[in-house]
Amino acid sequence: MSTAAQPDTTDTSPAAPLRPPPFYCPVEPAIHPRADEIERRAIEWIDRVAFHRDDTDRARLLGTNSAEFYARFAPQGVEHNVQMAAHWVYWGFAFDDARCDAGPFSARPDRFLAMTGPLQRALEVPHGAFGDDPLVTALQDIGRSFQECATPVQVRRFHDAHRAWLFAVAWQISNRARGHMPDLADYTTMRLHSAGGAPTLAMLEIACGAEVPGREMDAPAVRALTEMAVTVASWDNDLHSYNKECGQRHTDQNIINVLVHHEGYAPHEALERAVGMRDRVMSRFLELRERVRPRASRELRLYLDCLGHAIRGNIDWAFETLRYNHRDVTSLPLGAPEWADRPSDAGTRPLPIPAVAWWWDRLL
After folding, report:
1. How many CA atoms lie within 13 A of 334 on its CB side?
2. Residue 131 resides in a domain
3. Residue 91 counted as domain residue
4. Which residue from 101, 193, 201, 248 puts its CA 20 to 30 A from 91's CA?
C-alpha cells in the first residue's frame, strides 16, 4: 500500500477570478406568480421554527432567496405545495452551511454519518421524538407538511432522494478528510447527489400536485433526463461558486479544480472544458426530452417542463442571490447572465464518463 501523501484539496492560495461564460439554455424564464407571498410566509416560518443560530445566520439564510429559487422551478405549481418545498430549500441551505461546508462535521465523515442517520429517520418518522436539535425539529416540521399535501409515493420518492443526498455528502466529506481530490469519473458520480439536486427535483411532483406514474418515472429515459438536469445544474453551481470559494480561500471539490488537478489544465482552460461538457449534456437533455414528450402522460409532461425550468431557474436565481453574488467574497460579482445561442460543444457522442455515458444509449 502506498504511503505517499494525498493531494491537499484545501489549498488556501488565492486564485484569479473567472468570469462566467454565456450559458446555453434555450428555456424561457418563468416564476410562480405568488413568489413574493411564498417568500413572506417562508420568512415567518423560519422565525417560528428558529433553526438559525443568530441574526447573522438568519440574514445569510434569507439571502439565499430560496422561495424565489423554488418558485422558478415550479412556476405552475400549487401555491401551498410550492411553499412547503421552499421551506425545505431554506432548511437545506442552512444544513449545508452548518453541517457540510463548515463546522465540526465538515471534515469528519464518522461524525457526519452519526449525525445524519438519526436526522434522516426523523424526516421519515416526523411525529417521533428525536431530541431538540433545531435542524432536526425543523426538518420534521417539513416532513409533516409533506405527509399532509403529498401522496405516499411522492413522500417515499423524496425520502429516498434525501437519503442519497446525505450519503453523497458523506462521500464528499470523506474525500476532504483524507485530502483526496476525486477524478472526473468519481466526481461526476458523487455530484449527482452531493449537490442536493435529487431531493430538490423530487419535490417537483409535490409542488405541482401531480404524481408521475411509476412506469414512466422509473423508465430509463426519464431517469436519464432527471440525472442530466441534476448534472447541468450542479456543474452550473460549480461555475457560479468558484469565485466565491476562491475569495473565501477554501476551493475544494469543484469541477474546475478536478480538471486542473487531474488533467493539468489552467483554470481558464478547465472552465472551457467544463462548459463544453455541460453544453453537451444540455443538448442531449433537450433532444431526449422532445422524444419522450409525445408519449408522456399529463403528469410526466408537467414534470419534464419543470426539469427545464429547474435548469433555467437555477441560473437566473444564481445571478441574483447573495449566496454567489456578493462583493464580500469575490472581486468579480456575477452581474447579469449572458446567453449563448448555441452549445459550445454540439457533439452527440457520450461523454467519456462511465457513470453517465448511458444517457446517450437508445433509451426509448
Report:
1. 27
2. yes
3. yes
4. 248
